[in-house]
């Protein structure tokens, strides 16, 4: 397991970046920046602390799948912590066994620090080593799209 971190400065207030990232005003903003990971990416659930949330998409055959997670912390406009603990295959929740062993308990954290109208977004995530190349390429694209959406 490796911890990765990415930082981007965005020319927008933390409130706007936070709301855009989570899709709070329009889920489409979340779907647009996460499309870098999966063009069908969306979420189902709540961003409230303690809530279960699904990060889902559909594969080429139209099958629904994704991650089952919990919002560990949500301090609006400042910090979000997500703990991944399972995978979703259709309507089946898989929370133990070899399919989830490499992801179970991993944290994904987002912090938002605003200074003079510029928000620094820091993403810290625990990922299996065999996903490092994928995330190093994809996170940059996703955050560049978040910049575009937040600065619009």
Task: Output the keywords.
single chain; alpha+beta; 24% helix; 8-stranded antiparallel β-sheet; Alpha-D-Glucose-1,6-Bisphosphate, Chain A, domain 4; 8 strands
Spans of at least 5 consecutive residues with low confidence:
none
Assign an overall shape. globular
CATH topology: Alpha-D-Glucose-1,6-Bisphosphate, Chain A, domain 4
Task: Tell me the major beta sheet.
Answer: 8 strands, antiparallel
SS content category: alpha+beta
Protein name: Activator of Hsp90 ATPase homolog 1-like protein
InterPro entries: START-like_dom_sf (IPR023393)
Organism: Leeuwenhoekiella palythoae
What does this structure look like?
By secondary structure, the protein is an alpha+beta fold. Helix content is 24%, strand content 43%. Strands 1, 2, 3, 4, 5, 6, 7 and 8 form an 8-stranded antiparallel beta sheet that branches. α1 (14-22) crosses α3. The longest helix has 20 residues, at 132-151. InterPro entries: START-like_dom_sf. This is Activator of Hsp90 ATPase homolog 1-like protein.
What is this structure's SSE topology?
Blueprint: E1 2-10, H1 14-22, H2 27-34, E2 42-45, E3 52-58, E4 64-75, E5 79-89, E6 92-94, E7 107-115, E8 118-127, H3 132-151
Antiparallel strand pairs: 1-8, 2-3, 3-4, 4-5, 5-6, 5-7, 7-8
